[in-house]
Amino acid sequence: MNRENAIEAARCLLDIKAVKLSPSEPFTWASGRKSPIYCDNRLTLSYPSIRTFIRQQFVSLINEMFPEVDVIAGVATGGIAQGVLVAQDLGKPFVYVRPEAKNHGMKNQIEGDIKSGQTVMVVEDLISTGKSSLLAVDALRQAGCIVKGMVAVFTYELDVAKNNFETQNVPLATITNYSTLIETAVKEHYVSEEDLQSLNQWRENPEKWSDDRL
After folding, report:
1. Is domain 3-209 in CATH 3.40.50.2020, yes or no?
2. Residue 159 has what pLDDT?
């Protein structure tokens, strides 16, 4: 991860409110857990200059760390648009992977033309625990593909995600991360120094931070 570009990406996410920080009034995730951060990287698609910057960073990461891939695969739904942009730039075929196979029609989980033995680069928008992202990797591997790695816009840097990716032997590269985002948010006065302690506590133990507020 390029430090300068990671800071610029964090600043972009904060500027357009793709990432919102609110330690005093936490957000509730679908799981019911409380969090001081809410991230929706889909908003970047509405800003051409930011959309271009993210595409360029993805392409640079792939060319540097994961060269010689046959196919770009986006994780539904957040990774689809980003993956298409990357595939277009690289001149590669594109597919996307659903969380599970459809229960009608061709009952596909992988949409697009892909063949056993092809090498695949997976594109995702956000990494939390990594569980849903790695389901896409499993589907591709079951189809006989060789997954070279995954790239994402942002990671919360949770220990559980690190362990999940290591267990599944999937290299992960991101444009920016939680540490850089929080550092940038403090410098740019998006959050106060008082909020910083709460944000760091959540990063160290999200479950306990959430339970303390339920």
Report:
1. yes
2. 92
